[in-house]
Amino acid sequence: MAGKLWELLILLSGKLKRAHDFYTLITRKENQEIVNDFIDNGERLWQKLKTLLSACEKYMWNGAKSCEKGIQMGRKSGAEFVDAMFNADKEWDNTEKLMRGGKTWCERFDINCEEILRRPDA
């Protein structure tokens, strides 16, 4: 699942960057509005990712060790982070929701925006 999430984030990031890069070249107002809506929705997905990462980060403290210099994060902390993201008792529902939303966004982006970005002056 982690690999699928990683792949999805790469796709989302690439498509969103492409939309940002080509937006100013789009000549038709209607097409600009379509792409702008996708940019806004893609940015909301990134915000949901940041919220999810913050929630999972809180679990990292469970794996932190106390030492002379204070608290030290290590392998166990990283494992707690990953466990939080993919554990049904923790943040899995939010992870799954983000993945479904990202997959849907990418599919809809391909259908609605790909041709506009290939030919922004059409």
Short overview:
The protein is mainly alpha-helical and 122 residues long. The protein has helices at residues 2-23, 29-60, 75-86, 92-112, 114-118; strands spanning 65-67, 70-72. It has one domain.
Order of helices and strands: HHEEHHH
- In helices, the fraction of residues equals over 70%
Radius of gyration: 19 Å
The count of DSSP E runs of length 2 or more, i.e. the number of strands, is: 2
> How are strands sequenced across the largest beta sheet?
1-2
Class based on secondary structure composition and strand pairing: mainly alpha
Shape: elongated
Total of DSSP H or I helical runs spanning 4+ residues: 5
Unreliable stretches covering 5 or more consecutive residues: none
Q: Give the averaged pLDDT, no decimals.
A: 93
